């Protein structure tokens, strides 16, 4: 399922990112709108860089995974570089990973006996 919120104004300093969750043993039904909130929450986390905007967000879903994909843009190369550094560090914090994993669990139709693991966060090729 893909839900794309498109922003036609993309800065020249823009990169695509993804936050990947493994869901074991498999997804029964996933409320993608709830999972999409993860991209909306990022600016609320400690240290989110100034001058950075998140846009064009959607959820990719497979049998045993989901990932939140979004574009990040900024007016300056320094701001986009600051975001890249922040993004690589923030999910290493156990408390952040646990909160996001719980959010994905809540988005599942049958959350009992399901394990959600924040397994990857990366910049994607444009």
**Order of strands across the widest beta sheet?**
2-3-1-4
How many beta-strand runs?
4
Cα distance spanning the termini: 20 Å
Would you list the SSEs in sequence order as H and E? EHEEHHE
Radius of gyration: 14 Å
Kindly estimate the percentage of residues that lie in beta strands according to DSSP: 25-35%
Q: What value does the average pLDDT take?
A: 91
Q: Which class of secondary structure composition applies to the elements?
A: alpha+beta
How many helices? The count is 3
- Report low-confidence residues grouped into runs of 5 or more: none
Biggest sheet descriptor: 4 strands, antiparallel
User: Rough shape?
Assistant: elongated
Helix content: 25-40%
Can you tell me about this structure?
By secondary structure, the chain is α+β, with helices and mostly antiparallel strands. It contains three helices and four strands; from the N terminus they run E-H-E-E-H-H-E. The longest helix is centred in the middle third of the chain and has 14 residues, at 77-90. The chain is elongated.
Explain the layout of strands and helices:
Layout: E1 13-24, H1 32-41, E2 52-61, E3 65-74, H2 77-90, H3 94-106, E4 115-124
Antiparallel strand pairs: 1-3, 1-4, 2-3
Question: How would you describe this structure in keywords?
Answer:
126 residues; alpha+beta; 4 strands; 33% strand
């Amino acid at each position: 399922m893909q839900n794309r919120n498109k922003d036609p104004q993309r800065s020249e300093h823009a990169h695509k990112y993804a936050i990947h969750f493994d869901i074991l043993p498999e997804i029964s039904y996933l409320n993608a709108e709830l999972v999409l909130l993860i991209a909306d929450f990022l600016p609320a986390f400690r240290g989110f860089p100034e001058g950075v905007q998140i846009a064009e967000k959607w959820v990719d879903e497979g049998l045993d995974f989901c990932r939140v994909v979004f574009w990040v843009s900024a007016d300056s190369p320094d701001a986009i570089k600051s975001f890249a550094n922040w993004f690589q560090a923030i999910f290493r914090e156990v408390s952040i990973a646990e909160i996001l994993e719980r959010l994905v669990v809540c988005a599942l139709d049958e959350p009992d006996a399901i394990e959600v693991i924040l397994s990857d966060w990366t910049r994607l090729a444009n």
